[in-house]
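hi!! sorry for the late reply, been swamped w classes. u asked for the two structures so here they r. pasted raw, havent cleaned anything up. first the sequence of the first protein and right below it the tokens
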Amino acid sequence: MFEGITNQQIVFGACLFGATAMVGYLIATRLTRADRDPLRERLSAGTQTHTREPIPDDRGIRESPVSPIVQRVSKAVAEPLMPKDRDEVSKLRRSFAHAGIYSTPAIHLFVMSKVVLCAVGVVSGLLVGLMFREPMIAVVLAAFEGLIGLMIPTLWLKWQISRRQWSLETSLPDALDLMVVCVEAGLTIDAALQRVGQEISLAHPDISRELGITHMETRVGVPRIEALRNLGVRTGCASLQSLAAMLVQAERFGTSVGSALRVHAESLRIKRQHVAEERAAKTTVKLAFPVVLFIFPTVVLVLGGPAFILFFQSPMFHRQ
């Protein structure tokens, strides 16, 4: 079955599928940005008249690279394949929120990217199979590449969620230190959230964005406790959820917010240190496999190769 396969055909098929997958990934990355939020623009314009430093720009909310035509096409393509159950839709929206994507057409674009990449994978697999002139190879390659194209958007979404979770976990202690300074300087929790979101936007844009959204919710009338709870639910970060619970309890029982924030920041920093130490301890175990499989045979070959050559060229192995 594989007699007619050449290296050039295999390389061509792999390059074709890799190029289509990369183009699909770039298109999905470009199109899964959020729409412009008119409410945020009005509030930002009103804030600029009272303070020199505006609210941090939320790029994921304000930029709108998705044209209406693309939105209509994606909705038409993805509508038959959209999950009908409300729980499934809610779970998908929660996953997008954990990844930091709050765009309305993001789900339709996500489903459309699955359809497009799956179709491209099937077509490229069939084309490569036709080049081999083997129907069985065409079917196997079409199924394999179609499955990979179907999984690429899901894998990308999971990678975005894990990357953002790690970014929020590592940047939260720095944000809490700034919040302690702001609270002890006399600012309220709302003003401290706004100020920290402004100051930390360059170093940690993800947490700056979330703090800015929380501050905007309080400004439009959402109760502070509800806004803090939304912060933990929206991000899906355990550290932010514990921070929200701690602030709610501090406000409810009248304890010192500055002391609570300082203790919480110190515990998070210790936790981050323990995670780093755990990863460092796992390094030796992870290095054992590449050392044994790749580095050790190479060293033996380089060091023992000349000795083995001379040994086999000795008179012991040459009969006279």
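now the second protein. again sequence first, tokens right under
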Amino acid sequence: MIIKVETLTKTYGRVRAVNRLSLEIAEGSIYGFVGPNGAGKTTTMKILATLLAPTSGQAWVAGTEVTKNPDQVRRHVGYMPDFFGVYDDLKVNEYLDFYASSYGIPAADRRQIADDLLELVDLTHKRDAYVDTLSRGMKQRLCLARSLVHNPDVLLLDEPASGLDPRARVEMRELLKELRQMGKTILISSHILPELAEMCTDIGIVENGELVASGSVAEIMSRVQHQQILEVRLLERAEQAAAFMRALPGIGEAVADEQAVKASYQGDEEGLNLVLTSLISAGFRVCSFARASSNLEDVFLRVTKGVLQ
């Protein structure tokens, strides 16, 4: 595992920002860190980036414990904070050159590195523009390029799509997929849940400083799939169909809405077939019969309790 966290805790006086959090992230994965504001996502990322010291517990990046050898960890980590700070009086190429020099990259190599990164994030045409003239989406891409100047193995991206318009979010999502194909491991925090489901290989849901669920997207989704919502549309008699369905095996609540019935269901495929055939045998004229698809927002709402710090 390229990132490993064991019983990590961070307190600020009486406030516990991170509470005995443990997780593992495999090399080459995109791990989505999901949670409400104040859940401990940013604090965890800052500890992994060696910007904060934990109160207790341990964390490793690329095999190095973050508090014992922070300089070694920084060689492996590119950190993109949730708040984008720039030197507005610098040009884009000067901005990247400044950060490359901060990592001790020789002057002879910095121009090529900047050119390559600007091409990667599609900002080559802006290399001579002043940073303060860039759009929000362009600044986010520049910040991502900045985190890549030393070619790190791990990217820690705190809300990288925050405040972006739909087109800029799509561009950011495609860029992160490309970075994964280049071998980068990415830990990304966000509350834009559907987008995480599209790009991430694994998801961790954190609340009140604790990890309440973790696993692959498929594993996390399967935890809520055991209780499904059926949507049945009928030509007529929706109220009677709802009452009839409540008596069927596996059906919980069933509610009629105009000419449709929504019902909770626990069971397998054979049970679904029984529900449908029972409705038809009872004379109900079914127009459509389907399971409502669960998404990552459903998972988040079911797993978390809405408790904020």
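hope this helps!! also noticed smth abt the second:
Residues 226-299 form a domain with the Alpha-Beta Plaits fold (CATH 3.30.70.100).
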